[in-house]
Amino acid sequence: MKLVAVSSCPTGIAHTYMAAEALEQAGKAAGHEVHVETQGAAGSTPLDPAIIAAADGVIYAADLEVKDKDRFAGKPFVDVGVKKAVHDAPGVIAAAVAAVEAGVPAGGPAAPSAVPVTKVDRNAGAGTRIRQWLMTGVSYMIPFVAAGGILIALGFMVAQFAGGSDGVIEVTDIPVSHLLNDFNATNGMDWAALLFQTGAVAFGFLVPVLSGFIAYAIADRPGLVPGFVGGAISVAVGAGFLGGLVTGFMAGFLALWISRWKVPKGVRGVMPVVVIPLLSTFVVGLVMFLIIGQPIASLMTGLSDWLNGLSGANLLLLGALLGAMMGFDLGGPINKVAYTFAVTGLATEGLATDAVQYQIMAAVMAAGMVAPLAMALATTVRKKLFTHAEQENGKAAWLLGLSFISEGAIPFAAADPWRVIVSSLVGSSVTGAIVMAAGSGVRAPHGGIWVLPLISNPLGFVMAVAIGVVVTTGLVVVLKSAKPNEIVQAEQAADAEALVAA
Amino acid sequence: MSTPLITPDLVAVDLVATDRDDATRQLIDLLAAAGRVTDADGFHADVRAREAQMATGMPGGIGLPHARSSHVTVPSLAVGKVAAGVDFGAPDGPATLVFLIAAPDAGDGDHLKILAALARRLVHESFRTSLKEAGDAETVAEIVTREVVPS
């Protein structure tokens, strides 16, 4: 028989692990396969979902709340506490086997559900965890931005094609009732409106999804309802993504706090389905509508006005700064801050078609493409400056760069951080500034060269990327030539010998 | 591992104690003398608080007082052999082998893996027997160091 178990104890250093060992040993002695997840102080490695799926039954040898208990839903189980598992593991195994033979507990959910993953490492420090909560929200939001943004952009493209120069404006005025009652499959403007309306609805989810999944990352499932509702309220009161960030964190911590209340056993069953969502949602609503909704809305308006008021040199500076941030740590925290700033900007309500937010997205995307492309170019034009491994990475970096995956340059930055990062920083900020100057904008949050048809002033965008790439390539070649790399020289010496020997 | 979990000076082979609190205190004093616990009274209070939650006696004559505490500098184990036995609340009688586990409060996961490995070894009858049979402090410390290897 296959069993899984979870052990935990108040201190998390002794009984958790003794129970785990005792259960594994007792299981082995009785001819059963037992896998134990130790939810203790030395970090907890979650059981492989495949192992859970294959398990016949579950043993809870836990004195603390079992983390992510949903994973085991629907399986027969025994709940014995940690002490019994330490003192009488064979007895516990026997009880679990008996429970499995008695069958699935009545009333339990039929099957374990797939649980959305979060990027949260429970053992990380406070700063890291805040970033991970935020990135969980952002990562669930991005597909909505992508689907919505690209549909809207396609709608505009079709509108321009079918309705001429005014089509872009007319398409937003076509009411939904027209699509429902009078859709004409041969009319390009109708198709454009269909694309636009569908994209607009998808965009409506951005802030709720952001808020909901931040709360989910913090509090697991109990955070979803107050998080989503808080995000929707934020949209309703005009507090936008700033409000959504606030409601996400507020809802998450509220739900987490309420879920830790000590309540009588009878009430515990209805806590996750009724009490936590009800209370936390009400509190989030109260706080948003009555207290902080208005101030955040004013702040949002201020931010939008400020961005749209930027012009000339200031705009170039903003582009250069965001570009530098994109190029600095290539997918690290600073890069993500710039990217998040751009993506959440897309979620702003009621943007004009040439809003600065779209230019910011374009600047960030272009800048993020520079480093991997420059590394690819540098390995092509100056092979001798790079190791064999880097030359291989360079080939992959072409595709990664074109697809706006900054991480493609990481192998280079890791091997020679100083020279690569300085070069990338300069080239990326040049690109960011040029995009701003060219006025390119994009509604899609990702895609690189593949969303080029959706980018306004595509030529300017491509020029900006190309110039940045040339700058970064030039710098990295100069810097690397100034101080030859020992590994590279050793490799070349070996190659030369091999050539002579042959 | 820079600092070993246990050294011979953390082993008391002939501990005489009136009760579990006294036994615990004597072992805490060993840790304090070795500089592994900065505040013996403070750590003692933490261990008492843990012991009050749930007695740490185990079948087979084992007492296992332990705590995570800000007064601990490095994961440590002190071992006391109490020939006369001292009650740790185990169902089958007094403990003759007392393990005091001290874990730093701020320790990260890797830091505490050694203690997890120790706890896992403690479950094995053969490990406990070999410690009970060990005659002197050096042997006890050597057995622990040899057997407890973080996975």
TrEMBL record, chain A:
| Residue span(s) of domain PTS EIIC type-2 | 130-489
Q: Which Gene3D superfamilies match?
A: 3.40.50.2300
Which keywords fit this entry according to its UniProt record?
Answer: Cell membrane, Kinase, Membrane, Phosphoprotein, Phosphotransferase system, Sugar transport, Transferase, Transmembrane, Transmembrane helix, Transport
Instruction: Give the residue spans that cross the bilayer.
Output: 138-162, 191-219, 231-258, 270-293, 305-328, 358-378, 420-439, 459-479
Give every PTS EIIB type-2 domain span.
Answer: 1-98
Q: Which one of the record's GO molecular function terms can you name?
A: kinase activity
SUPFAM superfamilies per the UniProt record, alphabetical: PTS system IIB component-like
Which terms under GO biological process does the entry name?
phosphoenolpyruvate-dependent sugar phosphotransferase system
Q: What topology in the membrane does the UniProt record assign?
A: Multi-pass membrane protein
Top-rank taxon of the source lineage equals Bacteria
- Name-wise, this protein is PTS fructose transporter subunit IIBC
* Native organism taxonomy: Bacteria, Bacillati, Actinomycetota, Actinomycetes, Micrococcales
UniProtKB/TrEMBL annotation, chain B:
Q: Which PROSITE patterns is this protein grouped with?
A: PTS_EIIA_TYPE_2
Q: Residue ranges of the PTS EIIA type-2 domain?
A: 4-147
Superkingdom of origin organism: Bacteria
Output the InterPro entries linked to this UniProt entry: PTrfase/Anion_transptr, PTS_EIIA_type-2_dom, PTS_SugarTrans_NitroReg
One Pfam family cited in the UniProt record for this chain: PTS_EIIA_2
Xref: PANTHER family:
PTS SYSTEM FRUCTOSE-LIKE EIIA COMPONENT, PTS SYSTEM FRUCTOSE-LIKE EIIA COMPONENT-RELATED
Query: What's the name of the protein?
Result: PTS fructose transporter subunit IIA
- What is the species of this protein? Cellulomonas xylanilytica
Q: What is the lineage of its organism?
A: Bacteria, Bacillati, Actinomycetota, Actinomycetes, Micrococcales
